[in-house]
Design brief:
Helix content: 10-25%
CATH superfamily: Peptide methionine sulfoxide reductase
Strand content: 25-35%
Order of helices and strands: EEHHEEEEEEEEE
Shape: globular
Number of strands: 11
Number of helices: 2
Strand order of the largest sheet: 5-6-10-9-8-7
Largest sheet: 6 strands, antiparallel
Radius of gyration: 14 Å
Length: 139
C-alpha cells in the first residue's frame, strides 16, 4: 500500500523529515537530508567496479552509470557526468569557507556531493558523490 504522506508533484518527491528518518539509514539521512559528508575512503562504492546504474538512495532517481565512474583518488565515488543531466540539480555552496558547486537529486532534493572542474574527458568534470546517497543497481 503506498504511503499517503509521500507527495509527488511535478516529478518531485516530498516527504516529512519524520518519514525520511524512518526510510533512510542514519548515514543516508545525514548525507541526503542534512548535507553531511562521509569520511573519505569509507564509502561502500568508492572502489566498487561492478557494472550498473547508480540511483538516488532516497527516491530511486537514476543518477550515474558505472560507465562514467572513474578512480579520482579523492576518497569518494567519482563520475564524469550524470546519466541524464536533468536528473541532478546544482547549487552554489559557500559552506566551510569554500566556494563549491553542490550536486542535488532533482527529484527529492537530496544532497549527493559536489562537482569540480578537474575531471578527465570528455567533460572535464568530477562529480564527487557520497556512497550513502547512492544505491547501485548492478547490470
Amino acid at each position: 500500500m503506498p504511503d499517503t504522506k509521500t507527495k509527488i508533484t511535478d516529478d518531485k518527491v516530498i516527504k516529512s523529515e519524520e518519514q525520511w528518518r524512518r526510510e533512510l539509514t542514519p548515514m543516508q539521512y545525514a548525507v541526503l537530508r542534512e548535507k553531511a559528508t562521509e569520511r573519505p575512503f569509507s564509502g561502500e562504492y568508492e572502489h566498487d567496479e561492478r557494472a550498473g546504474t547508480y540511483v538516488c538512495a532516497g527516491c530511486g532517481n537514476v543518477l550515474f552509470s558505472s560507465d562514467a565512474k572513474f578512480d579520482s583518488g579523492c576518497g569518494w565515488p567519482s563520475f564524469t557526468q550524470p546519466t541524464v543531466d536533468s536528473h541532478v540539480d546544482e547549487e552554489r555552496d559557500t559552506s566551510h569557507g569554500m566556494i563549491r558547486t553542490e550536486v542535488l537529486c532533482a527529484k527529492c532534493s537530496g544532497h549527493l556531493g559536489h562537482v569540480f572542474p578537474d575531471g578527465p574527458g570528455p567533460t572535464g568534470l568530477r562529480y564527487c558523490i557520497n556512497s550513502a546517497a547512492l544505491k547501485l543497481e548492478p547490470k
